[in-house]
Write a structure and sequence with these properties.
With about 180 residues, this protein is α/β, with parallel strands linked by helices. It contains eight helices and five strands. It comes from Nocardioides exalbidus.
């Protein structure tokens, strides 16, 4: 049976990196990266948040359309229970499974990781600007707290430590968690 694997976590914790690595090791797996989908919409820089609201239903349709053919991995921060439920309903609707994985920084330094985050992805600078405009470190800390509450309320959630600087070890932990 195919499955939607949601890699959830605070910004900068390694969701997209691990999603791409998972897909590389599991041919036929689609990486549905909502942040990348945003960049396909004209004017995305000027309305990053609004575009995200429009792209999420499109991502759900893409996921639902692809799952009969293969697995989908979704690297996305979903700290709102209703949004999470909307994505979790997609695989159920097409006879697939849903696996929710939360990546956590075991050092508890999600704000530092976000600040040190590097990448060539076009949306990184925009996300950093939006976080600064919304309150900086307090925004990142709030996401981490909301994720902790979400994990506590959903006992089936898999939690994987994402160790900064140890992509191989973190990936091995993800593989082990998904293999159970």
């Amino acid at each position: 049976m195919t499955r939607l694997i949601l890699l959830n976590g605070a910004p900068g914790v390694g969701k997209s990196t691990l999603a791409r690595r998972w897909a590389d090791d599991h041919p036929g797996t689609l990486v549905c990266d909502i942040d990348l989908l945003r960049t396909w919409v004209g004017g995305w820089r000027e309305s990053f948040s609004a575009v995200g609201g429009h792209v999420r239903p499109a991502a759900q349709a893409l996921i639902g359309g692809y799952l009969p053919s293969g697995d989908v991995v979704l690297p996305q921060l979903l700290a709102n229970g209703a949004e999470l439920d909307a994505f979790a309903a997609v695989p159920v609707g097409v006879g697939s499974d849903f696996v929710h994985v939360v990546l956590r920084d075991p050092a508890g330094d999600v704000t530092g990781r976000f600040r040190r985050r590097a990448g060539d992805d076009p949306w990184h600078a925009e996300v950093q600007r939006l976080v600064e405009d919304a309150g900086g470190d307090a925004v990142i800390a709030s996401h981490a707290q909301r994720l902790d509450a979400l994990v506590a309320s959903r006992p089936g959630t898999l939690v994987v430590d994402s160790v900064e600087g140890d992509e191989d070890g973190t990936y091995a932990a993800l593989v082990a968690a998904l293999g159970r």
